[in-house]
């Protein structure tokens, strides 16, 4: 529970014109007026907007997004500010910062960007191996991908094969570094390789008399 707590919505709006990784489906919405009601046809990919990568995204025999343990996507997490880093996030950048955490989110210099760029900050292979060895449940980033552009997939495979869930395209630009309670849940898409999600951070947990305020990060 929370007393005078805050809820931060760290989900990027999913709408036409949102950032799309090159080669991915451009989101489209076609709304129809049926008189008494509206209904909308939605065209998106499993990796549109703020989304979760399932193991099957890079592992042929990996689990689908509906099989990810919800405990990997709920609980205490640590936001790590790496906005000073351009290019590769190295193991040395994480030492001492991720200890004791089971979920980590990277606030990068891409935080407030609204257009795709190829040189977004990304996790290096040694840093990925370091996090996997720590048995981190979830690694998130506000960049378009956890791995560099035109990647080999080695960072994804290292994390996913260790049971680490990956969240990409978060909105962290107004979130201070620190520990928060996180909920980031995918749609229950049977057997699919990923899903858009709604990601929230909760600040100010105490024992009684909860009083929530929703803070939209825009």
The figure for the number of domains is 1
Please report which band the strand proportion falls in: under 5%, 5-15%, 15-25%, 25-35%, 35-45% or over 45%.
25-35%
Shape: globular
Q: Using only CA atoms, what is the Rg? A: 17 Å
| Main CATH class | Alpha Beta
Low-confidence stretches: none
According to DSSP, the number of beta strands is 13
What does this structure look like?
The chain has helices at 91-94, 125-133, 154-161, and strands spanning 2-9, 28-33, 38-43, 51-53, 74-81, 88-89, 103-107, 122-123, 138-141, 165-168, 178-186, 194-205, 214-216. With 218 residues, the chain is mainly beta. It has a single domain (2-12, 45-216), classed as Glucose Oxidase, domain 1 (3-Layer(bba) Sandwich), CATH 3.50.30.50. The longest helix has 9 residues, at 125-133. It is globular.
Spell out the key features of this protein.
218 residues; mainly beta; Glucose Oxidase, domain 1; 7-stranded mixed β-barrel; two-stranded antiparallel ribbon; 3 helices; globular
Set out the fold topology.
Layout: E1 2-9, E2 28-33, E3 38-43, E4 51-53, E5 74-81, E6 88-89, H1 91-94, E7 103-107, E8 122-123, H2 125-133, E9 138-141, H3 154-161, E10 165-168, E11 178-186, E12 194-205, E13 214-216
Parallel strand pairs: 1-13, 5-7, 6-8, 7-9, 9-10
Antiparallel strand pairs: 1-12, 2-3, 4-10, 4-12, 5-11, 11-12
Helix pairs in contact: 2-3
């Amino acid at each position: 529970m929370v007393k005078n707590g805050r809820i931060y919505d760290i989900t990027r709006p999913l709408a036409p014109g949102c950032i799309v990784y090159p080669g991915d489906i451009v989101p489209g919405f076609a709304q129809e007026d049926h008189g008494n009601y509206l209904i909308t046809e939605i065209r998106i990919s499993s990796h549109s907007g703020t989304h979760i990568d399932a193991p099957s995204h890079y592992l042929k025999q990996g689990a689908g997004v509906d099989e990810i343990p919800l405990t990997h996507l709920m609980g205490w997490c640590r936001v790590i500010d790496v906005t000073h880093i351009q290019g590769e996030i190295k193991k040395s950048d994480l030492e001492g910062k991720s200890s004791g955490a089971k979920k980590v989110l990277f606030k990068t210099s891409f935080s407030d960007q609204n257009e795709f760029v190829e040189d977004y900050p990304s996790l290096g292979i040694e840093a990925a191996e370091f996090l996997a060895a720590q048995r981190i449940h979830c690694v998130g980033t506000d960049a378009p991908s956890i791995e560099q552009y035109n990647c080999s997939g080695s960072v994804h495979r290292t994390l996913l094969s260790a049971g680490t869930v990956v969240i990409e395209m978060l909105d962290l630009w107004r979130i201070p570094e620190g520990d928060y309670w996180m909920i980031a849940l995918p749609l229950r898409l049977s057997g699919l390789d990923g899903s858009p999600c709604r990601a929230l951070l909760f600040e100010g947990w105490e024992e009684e008399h909860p009083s929530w305020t929703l803070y939209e990060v825009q």
